[in-house]
Amino acid sequence: MTIETTGLVYRYGAGEAEATALDGVDLALADGEFVVVAGANGSGKTTLVRQFNGLLSPDEGEVRVDGVPVSEDPVAARTRVGMVFQDPRDAFVAATVGADVAFGPENLGLSRSDIDRRVEAALDAVNMGGREDERLDALSGGEQERVAIAGALAMEPAHLVLDEPFTGLDEPARRSVLGRLRALHRDGTGVVVVTHDLRDVFPLADRVVALADGRVAVDAPPGEAVEALAALDVRVPDRVERDVTDVATATPDSDPC
């Protein structure tokens, strides 16, 4: 298992203002899985995934990446688990596309040739090749999202975690980002998507993990998760239910997406 949490507890605030965001979460994500993390607002979704590479540290319990506690080697965890934030601008550290994507590999102390190779491969993976010199603030929202994904890919992670990657994107941008995630998954990268919009990712998911009050309430394949999600006030549109049925009954050689 690449990512594993045991008895994970995380609290916000202190004293009378203290609130429990995660309450004993046990979860294991295998290499190459496409996992959707769902749940109502305040259920703990973002808090959970930010534990995966040490952006947040638990009050109780443990997170391990490849068997190594994140607290013991956060650098290794952040290399293995790439994170893309809800607003890609939150992660940008440079003015241009190429410089931003190169930032992570540079901090690994790689040679210039290895850095250039990673940047080129990551940008090609998101259809942004040859645009290294363009300014980030001149890009569309969808293009910025793809650059953020490229920045995570340049670290060559085993898992790519995306928090609400479709927020604010128009339909062409959504399709572009979704296509990139689908291709990455097919190439063996584990993908974890935190999203309120389940329509696009359900047909791609191997598992759906839903949180309620900081606990895992659902952990099942998409077709089995639909009814339970409705009980958790997670809206699953009719089209998703039909798509999931199609995926469940499709032949191995068919392409449901």
UniProtKB/TrEMBL annotation:
Keywords: ATP-binding, Membrane, Nucleotide-binding, Transport. Residues 3-238 form the ABC transporter domain. GO terms for cellular component: plasma membrane. Its main location: membrane. GO terms for molecular function: ATP binding. Pfam families: ABC_tran. It is a peripheral membrane protein. InterPro entries: AAA+_ATPase, ABC_transporter-like_ATP-bd, ABC_transpr_CbiO/EcfA_su, ECF_ABC_transporter_ATP-bd, P-loop_NTPase. It is found in: Cell membrane. CDD domains: ABC_cobalt_CbiO_domain1. Belongs to the ABC transporter superfamily. PANTHER family: ENERGY-COUPLING FACTOR TRANSPORTER ATP-BINDING PROTEIN ECFA1 (PTHR43553:SF24), HEAVY METAL TRANSPORTER (PTHR43553). Probably part of an ABC transporter complex. Responsible for energy coupling to the transport system. This is Energy-coupling factor ABC transporter ATP-binding protein. It comes from Halobium salinum.
